[in-house]
Write a structure and sequence with these properties.
It is a single chain. The chain is 27% helix and 26% strand. A hairpin with an 8-residue loop joins strand 3 and strand 4. It contains seven helices and twelve strands. The C terminus is likely disordered. Strands 6-7-11-12 form a four-stranded mixed sheet. It is of the alpha+beta class.
Length: 244
């Protein structure tokens, strides 16, 4: 796995926009100011989309082979041990044994700071897609007013180990805005139902990555949730009740 940035998705042309599980071609180069081994700069103007997104039909029949090529850890602790080695990996796939719950807390800073806005604008400049219109659009981007953390358990060498990590998945943020628009003040119940109940019913895997400025700080960058395989006794797969 590698990390590609910046990808100012709102600003790239329609014919270059791609979806999750869709192949692209692009020119990339190792990010010189980012010492994480997987971090690469992507030249957004070179992006070309290849074919249609890989479908999720038939129990993720076409997606599973791509996941199975990747190493999935059963304990987050193993990812941190490997990272602590010089230039160790800063991306990892982790399959939690059990999700204990979802913590929802008000964000410390519910609006963008000047430093955050400057960083967002700098990313657009690096991508070569910046103008005054883009600057205004970035300033109107909504920042999530809450932080979301999964509490979960993994099997470690000494038994079960509990962890807590922040969810930085874009889809989780989009789900929050959708729930709030649809349910108003009652947004939390349907939001929890999806993240705390429905996704753990799937074969949930965390794509985890570290923060550049804080190399030992891990986030859940993305949630991957193929349906569980059929049980040995022939019972049907539970699947997802409400996919994101």
């Amino acid at each position: 796995m590698i990390r590609l940035f910046p990808v100012p998705f709102r600003l790239i042309s329609d014919e270059q926009q791609f979806k999750k599980w869709q192949w692209i071609n692009a020119r990339i180069a190792k990010a010189p100011a980012d010492h994480r081994p997987e971090s690469h700069k992507v030249y957004v103007d070179t992006v070309t989309v290849e074919g249609n997104p890989i479908p999720s039909a038939k129990q993720w029949k076409e997606r599973r082979p791509h996941l199975e090529r990747l190493r999935i850890l059963e304990d987050f602790g193993a990812a941190e041990v490997e990272r602590s080695v010089d230039r160790g990996p800063t991306l990892a796939l982790v399959r939690p044994k059990r999700v204990l719950g979802l913590d929802i807390t008000p964000a410390a800073n519910p609006t963008w700071s000047d430093e955050e806005l400057a960083k967002l604008l700098a990313h657009q400049e690096q991508a070569g897609l910046f103008d005054d219109t883009d600057a205004k659009a970035i300033r109107t981007l909504r920042k999530l007013p809450y932080d979301f953390h999964y509490r979960y358990v993994c099997d470690s060498g000494g038994g079960e180990q509990e962890y807590r990590h922040k969810i930085a998945d874009w889809e989780a943020g989009a789900l929050f805005w959708t729930c709030r628009a649809k349910y108003g003040a009652a947004w939390e119940a349907p939001f929890r139902a999806k993240l705390e109940t429905n996704l753990p019913q799937a074969d949930l895997v965390f794509l985890m990555g570290t923060i550049h400025r804080f190399p030992d700080k891990w986030l859940i960058v993305s949630l991957i949730y193929p349906p569980r395989r059929p049980l040995p006794d022939g019972l049907p797969d539970q699947g997802l009740l409400f996919p994101l």
